[in-house]
Amino acid sequence: MGKKNYKLSKGNLLYIFLILTLIIILITLQFYFLYNSHSTYQETLSLTNQNIKSVKNNICTNNKTIDDIISEIEELENETVLFDPTYEQAYNFLENDKTDLNTFNDVTYNCDHFSTDVNNNAEGQGIRCGYVVISLSSGTPHAIVAFNTTDEGLIFFEPQSDQLVILEKNKDYWNECLQAESNYPTNSIVLDYTILW
């Protein structure tokens, strides 16, 4: 058997060249599209991450707003539940309240504590009670409570003793405003007072 000579003609070479060129172009296009899709995917992923962060921030902001709204609603509910008592209801409340039996101490349990406890106890029973801060000429402020009664109007009480107080500016608190005997020194003139409801 003899060897066969295969000779490629120019036409065949051109045909093979075109096929190889086409294959190279197709591979190049494939890489190009793959690269572009990867870049688009990265951009989409980045935008998605930004959107997720934005949504999280909005959720946090909305939660805070919702918490604030819930707090305001609860405060309003408390206010609507509280009622202004009659003089007799206020007096009876103080008679039954045991805060005045607590022991006074300048540091650990003073007029602020007495007034706060009476205020909280009254509101716990649905009675609107004011916390009153009195500025005295002695320089040391004093705290008492108030009720805006439906029949006698605004009345004040000393929560340490449940005594009625006729609170007036320019009068001595312990010796003129407090409606009972007091052994406190003079020079406690009422300069001003503020009621916190």
Explain what this protein looks like in three dimensions.
It is built from four helices and five strands. With 197 residues, it is α+β, with helices and mostly antiparallel strands. It folds into two domains: 13-81; 87-196, Beta Polymerase, domain 2 (2-Layer Sandwich), CATH 3.30.460. Strands 4-3-2-1-5 form a five-stranded antiparallel sheet, covered by helices on one side. A hairpin with a 3-residue loop joins strand 2 and strand 3 (153-158). The longest helix is centred in the first third of the chain and has 72 residues, at 10-81. The radius of gyration is 43 Å and the shape is rod-shaped. The relative contact order is 0.09.
Helices and strands in order, then pairings?
Layout: H1 10-81, H2 87-96, H3 111-124, E1 130-136, E2 142-149, E3 153-158, E4 163-165, H4 173-177, E5 190-196
Antiparallel strand pairs: 1-2, 1-5, 2-3, 3-4
